[in-house]
Design goal:
Layout: E1 17-21, E2 24-29, E3 35-38, E4 42-53, H1 58-67, E5 73-84, E6 90-96, E7 101-103, E8 108-112, E9 116-121, E10 134-139, E11 142-148, E12 153-157, E13 164-167, E14 171-175, E15 179-184, E16 202-207, E17 210-214, H2 230-234
Antiparallel strand pairs: 1-2, 2-5, 3-5, 3-8, 4-5, 6-11, 7-10, 7-14, 8-11, 9-10, 12-17, 13-16, 14-17, 15-16
Length: 252
């Protein structure tokens, strides 16, 4: 049999985390060397692999209910190769070190089981439609696979530069060591809207030394995109708009 499809055959590499292609993660497992992945993210595997729901303590479940932030994970272990993907989003590998990584849990595809993750509160006065006040802080040493809607932009923040400002609905992750401040570019009379008169609204300002990852989209990954139909929803109004879906935040 002959076909151009053979160009997409399995990449033969012994690396634990690698990209089969820009939208497909390949993970090699050996014995007890397991990995944590988003529930339902497995698209194929070779070998003998077991999938188990990851245990959540009562405190973790309570924290998730209170903040809406947290990871729904499954533990993958065995001998073989596993492939992960999420709605054909772009996959990016990040080496986490002592600096740590702060990320919205919606963008996490998989991570080393040796890494620690906990919910933290971003210094802010308001919750917003995309990236809210609660985020996931990942620490330790290991790899994390993130997903973005489209090819992202990586901005470097350093002492030689002024603060870096990004749209709060487009930011994906940043170095935990960075100082973060949430602010609005709208008039006070219109802060209840998802966007002000300029079409720009909530933003995050970063200072210090580190990196900020931004995606070319102002929506959460497709499974969490909650913009309804009609003009009202597009401006954040109504039950189908961003405001309706964020009732309970301080600013709603």
């Amino acid at each position: 049999m002959q076909s151009p499809l053979f160009a997409y055959a399995d990449n033969q590499t012994a690396e634990r985390f690698s990209l089969q292609n820009p939208q497909l993660l390949r993970v090699v497992l050996h014995g007890r060397d397991d990995v944590l992945a988003r529930k339902g993210a497995m698209v194929a595997y070779q070998g003998t692999i077991e999938f188990d729901a990851e245990y959540q303590s009562g405190q973790e479940r309570r924290r998730r209910r209170e903040t809406g932030e947290g990871l729904e994970l499954m533990r993958c272990q065995g001998d073989g190769v596993v492939y992960f993907a999420n709605l054909a989003q772009y996959v990016h590998l990040v080496d986490v070190d002592q600096d740590g990584l702060t990320v919205d849990s919606s963008y996490v595809l998989a991570l080393d089981s040796s890494l620690n993750h906990q919910v933290i509160e971003v210094d802010s006065q308001y919750g917003i439609s995309g990236t809210g006040r609660y985020q996931l802080n990942i620490t330790g040493r290991g790899k994390v696979a993130l997903v973005t809607s489209g090819e992202p932009l990586l901005l470097r923040v350093g002492p030689e530069s002024t603060s870096v400002n990004v749209d709060a609905d487009a930011v994906v992750a940043w170095s935990t060591a960075l100082r973060v401040q949430m602010q609005a570019q709208t008039q006070s009379a219109t802060v209840w809207r998802r966007r002000g008169n300029t079409g720009e609204g909530w933003e995050l300002g970063f200072q210090g030394r580190g990196q900020v990852l931004v995606q070319p989209s102002e929506l959460l990954p497709p499974q969490n995109a909650r913009i309804g139909s009609g003009a009202a929803a597009q401006f954040g109004m109504g039950a189908g708009g961003a405001r309706g879906h964020n009732r309970g935040n301080d600013w709603s």
